[in-house]
């Protein structure tokens, strides 16, 4: 049962956003408020904090801010989430990547790396592993540590196994892992051509040119104006005819960017950069 | 139980109708969808528990048999009248202050994503007392807490009569929390929706 004393009001959410921006430089002002409110309420309930205590702890305890950041940025992810996306990707994007001497891929908002490694597996199966490089970025340094390790609980891997089968891929997901007791470690060759580093979509800029950018289930946390800023960043970061993949229930709403990205697959939200 | 003037009046004043359920709720919710006229003059959101990757024919079946517009929620869709929105599998569905949807992939609630609690609570914050919410058959307690929030905010809250439900647990959990202002069987619920 929720305690009403531990919920947060909309103006209080704004107050915390301002505080975090002032002290830590992270700007959550353009994140969707319903989700932020829910996440903040959750932290207060987990830590048994009243609103005043939440503010006080944020101001005075740097370590707490890391936990706060982890809680309010949703890091739930799966390998091969939306299996039909991955089967379409194999048909519609892989042949394009294969046409390059070397393909650079940006997995934006990669969390603990599950999606980046899903792509690494597809590239390996297509014989493109050595011809490609995956950059995974996130604002959350703890998640990035997990991504670099590439070690997941066996329970999680089991839950991804169904996705893998439904995506119609060869063999089984465990073929790509070394199992140690209750943990599964991704094969080191799949880690070779990956780099995980900090990048904040709200405030950071272009850092390379890519043949493919995936950013799935990240836009759902952003208001439309911020989505447009990031679409602009992606557009500038893509090579001519480069691909952009968004989440299954996300879409490009702005007319301006609808003209700049051609729809390759409506259902799976796969786009291709047009114009220059 | 006969429908009193209070319930009929509040149904008529409703802006947003929320239909939630789990196991055993498909049939009564499908019945509701079939009987709504094209211009119900309300927004409808349906939250039914279902497995991810289970490409059920629910949306298609609903759309083929509904006179109202039917849409699976896409991020930032604006809530329109005379439209039925279905919460997509493997996301939570939230409502923003400007009456648009936002989706969320965070942890399951009551092992469920979509969670009925999450959408009910969010609707209650934005629509205050202008909702009608019905919690149908189901085998866990998701939705009860959200229904209670809706009731506290003055919305009309209804639990399907557990004796009339295929699975009693979900409506019973709401009744136990005193979250349901009315306990109705499906026949009365269908009748109300035609008032």
Automatic annotation (TrEMBL), chain A:
<feature type="domain" description="CheR-type methyltransferase">
    <location>
        <begin position="1"/>
        <end position="276"/>
    </location>
</feature>
<dbReference type="InterPro" id="IPR022642">
    <property type="entry name" value="CheR_C"/>
</dbReference>
<protein>
    <submittedName>
        <fullName>Protein-glutamate O-methyltransferase CheR</fullName>
    </submittedName>
</protein>
<dbReference type="GO" id="GO:0032259">
    <property type="term" value="P:methylation"/>
</dbReference>
<dbReference type="InterPro" id="IPR050903">
    <property type="entry name" value="Bact_Chemotaxis_MeTrfase"/>
</dbReference>
<keyword id="KW-0489">Methyltransferase</keyword>
<dbReference type="Pfam" id="PF03705">
    <property type="entry name" value="CheR_N"/>
</dbReference>
<dbReference type="GO" id="GO:0008757">
    <property type="term" value="F:S-adenosylmethionine-dependent methyltransferase activity"/>
</dbReference>
<dbReference type="InterPro" id="IPR029063">
    <property type="entry name" value="SAM-dependent_MTases_sf"/>
</dbReference>
<dbReference type="InterPro" id="IPR022641">
    <property type="entry name" value="CheR_N"/>
</dbReference>
<dbReference type="InterPro" id="IPR000780">
    <property type="entry name" value="CheR_MeTrfase"/>
</dbReference>
<keyword id="KW-0808">Transferase</keyword>
<dbReference type="Pfam" id="PF01739">
    <property type="entry name" value="CheR"/>
</dbReference>
């Amino acid at each position: 049962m929720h305690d009403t004393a531990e919920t947060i009001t909309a103006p209080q959410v704004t107050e915390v956003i301002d505080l975090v921006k002032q002290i830590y430089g992270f700007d959550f002002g353009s994140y969707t408020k319903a989700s932020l409110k829910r996440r903040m309420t959750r932290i207060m309930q987990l830590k048994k904090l009243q609103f005043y205590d939440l503010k006080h702890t944020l101001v005075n305890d740097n370590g707490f801010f890391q936990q706060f950041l982890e809680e309010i940025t949703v890091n739930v992810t799966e390998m091969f989430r939306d299996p039909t996306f991955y089967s379409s990707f194999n048909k519609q994007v892989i042949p394009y990547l294969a046409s390059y001497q070397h393909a650079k891929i940006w997995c934006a908002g990669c969390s603990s790396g599950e999606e980046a490694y899903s792509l690494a597996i597809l590239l390996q199966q297509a014989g493109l592993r050595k011809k490609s490089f995956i950059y995974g970025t996130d604002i959350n340094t703890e998640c990035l540590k997990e991504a670099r390790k590439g070690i997941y609980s066996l329970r999680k891997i089991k839950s991804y196994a169904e996705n893998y089968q439904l995506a119609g891929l060869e063999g089984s997901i465990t073929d790509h892992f070394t199992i140690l007791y209750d943990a599964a470690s991704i094969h080191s060759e799949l880690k070779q051509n990956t780099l995980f580093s900090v990048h904040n979509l709200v405030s950071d800029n272009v850092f390379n040119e890519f043949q493919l950018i995936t950013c799935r289930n990240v836009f759902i946390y952003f208001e439309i104006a911020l989505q447009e800023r990031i679409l602009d960043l992606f557009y500038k970061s893509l090579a001519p005819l480069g691909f952009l993949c968004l989440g299954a229930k996300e879409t490009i709403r702005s007319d301006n960017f609808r003209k700049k990205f051609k729809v390759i697959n409506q259902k799976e939200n796969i786009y291709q950069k047009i114009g220059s | 139980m006969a429908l009193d003037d209070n319930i009929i009046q509040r149904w008529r004043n409703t802006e947003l109708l929320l239909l939630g359920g789990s196991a055993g709720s498909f049939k009564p919710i499908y019945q509701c969808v079939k009987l709504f006229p094209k211009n119900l003059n309300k927004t409808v959101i349906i939250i039914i528990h279902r497995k991810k990757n289970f490409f059920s024919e629910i949306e298609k079946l609903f759309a083929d048999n509904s006179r109202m517009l039917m849409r699976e929620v896409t991020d930032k869709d604006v809530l329109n009248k005379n439209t039925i929105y279905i919460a997509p599998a493997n996301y939570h569905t939230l409502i923003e202050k400007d009456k648009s949807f936002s989706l969320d992939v965070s942890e399951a609630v009551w092992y469920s994503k979509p969670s009925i609690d999450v959408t009910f609570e969010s609707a209650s914050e934005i629509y205050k007392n202008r909702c009608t919410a019905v919690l149908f058959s189901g085998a866990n307690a998701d939705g009860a807490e959200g229904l209670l929030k809706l009731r506290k905010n003055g919305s009309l809250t209804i639990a399907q009569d557990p004796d009339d439900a295929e699975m009693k647990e979900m409506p019973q959990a709401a009744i136990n929390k005193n979250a349901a202002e009315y306990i109705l069987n499906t026949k009365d619920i269908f009748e109300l929706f035609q008032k």
